[in-house]
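User: quick one, fold this
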Amino acid sequence: MAVKPWIGTLKAMTPTGFKPAKADGVAPNASLQLEYVYGYRCHDARSNLRYAASGKVVYHTAGVGIVLDPTANT
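Assistant:
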């Protein structure tokens, strides 16, 4: 069995009399939308920049697939 010293720390930091709410552990009804990813790492990620048939630029950075339309107005 693995030793997990952080469990004791969490128990010691929990305020006395703390009762979790019924909504704890339920995902909120919300979403995020990524607007822009800055940067391009190219020194060790070669040959990952391509043109799609539509003329858009396709590449990946920071674990995100990017489809960039150079003709779109920002």
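User: anything notable?
Assistant: The mean pLDDT is 82.
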